[in-house]
Write a structure and sequence with these properties.
27% of the residues lie in helices and 31% in strands. The protein starts with a strand and ends with a helix. The chain contains nine helices and 15 strands. The longest helix has 15 residues. It is an alpha/beta fold and 310 residues long.
Length: 310
């Protein structure tokens, strides 16, 4: 397997900045790809060891392009996550004034994060989406647009200047990125972990989603992401992308996954991995009756009953 990481490029994206915070990134060749799909496909094809892509932001929630790519195609697995605080700069060619800007570009995920700023400062500017924020900066460099929202760090790379900086509609906005590779044994639990899965219902009936969520609730498992995505099989047909607190080696998580496997048409395991920025001491205590020790004790009691030793 090549010692390389694919990432959503080109150079100068927030994705690249977040990727370089991983210690192992210093020992890998970092290769930019034009889209999330092409970066993940490079892993599936064996052209890269792993891919690093955005998956969620604190303003709009899950990034559908990434979620859909993990739902479909050959299975992949998440191994790490990184949180990056996001603020935008308005990048322009030298000499451009605010009044000169008629067209703006950036990645689609950027628009909800600067919508109010645009309304207040450039209400008549036409927005067009780019493959990434850095690609938007490149298009401005080429003269195809007047301005781009991107990281201020991308200005020098593309011969642009930041006309405005520190742009964000929501304070403390963050984007979550994940390192994705081929399926393998998950890393050992750290005590502050997350498990990601995709669920497909057997059929649509009253309480169907409640039944799925009940497998987590009855075991005291907290959910951190729940997002429905269309399956492509027609209106009203959805699968559910879920991030849950805990590791597959935890007894309560393992039992929840077994319960879901019994009642769902399909379950796709996307990985158990360390939560970014969380220490084991920060994790909320489990509800009474949901610790690993209590699950073991309950299983032992059932075994004793079966042996007539109760």
């Amino acid at each position: 397997m090549p010692a390389s990481y694919a990432y959503l490029g080109p150079e100068g994206t927030f994705t690249e900045v977040a990727l370089r915070t991983l210690p192992e990134a210093a020992t890998r060749e970092l290769i930019p790809y034009v889209s999330v799909q092409s970066a993940l496909d490079a892993v599936r094809a064996g052209e890269a060891e792993a891919a690093f892509v955005p998956i969620e932001n604190s303003v709009e929630g899950g990034i559908t392009t990434t979620l859909d790519e993990l739902v479909a195609g050959a299975p992949l697995m998440i191994y790490r996550e990184v949180l990056l605080s996001i603020t935008f700069a308005l990048l322009v060619r030298p000499g451009t004034k605010l009044s000169d800007i008629k067209t703006i570009t950036a990645h689609p995920a950027a628009q909800p994060q600067v919508r109010n700023w645009l309304k207040a400062n450039l209400p008549d500017a036409v927005w067009e989406s780019a493959a990434s924020n850095a690609d938007g900066a490149r298009l401005v460099q080429e003269g195809r647009y007047d301005a781009a929202f991107a990281g201020e760090f991308a200005a020098a790379r593309y011969g642009l200047v930041p006309l405005e900086t520190g742009i964000h509609d929501a304070e403390n906005a963050q984007t979550r990125f994940v390192l994705v590779g081929r399926p393998a044994r998950p890393a050992a639990p750290t005590g502050a972990d997350k498990t990601s899965i995709v669920l497909w219902q057997r059929d649509d009936h009253p309480g169907a989603l409640r039944d799925l969520l009940g497998e987590f609730a009855s075991r005291g498992i907290n959910l951190m992401l729940l997002q429905s995505r269309p399956t492509g099989a027609g209106i009203g047909n959805y699968c559910f992308c879920i991030d849950a607190e805990g590791h597959i080696s935890d007894r309560r998580m393992a039992e929840a996954l077994m319960g879901l496997k019994r009642i769902c048409l399909q379950v796709r395991f996307l990985g158990s991995y360390p939560r970014a920025g969380i220490r084991p001491d920060d994790v909320r205590r489990t509800l009474p009756g949901t610790s690993d020790e209590e699950f073991v004790a309950a299983a032992d009691w059932v075994a004793r009953c079966q042996d007539g030793r109760f």
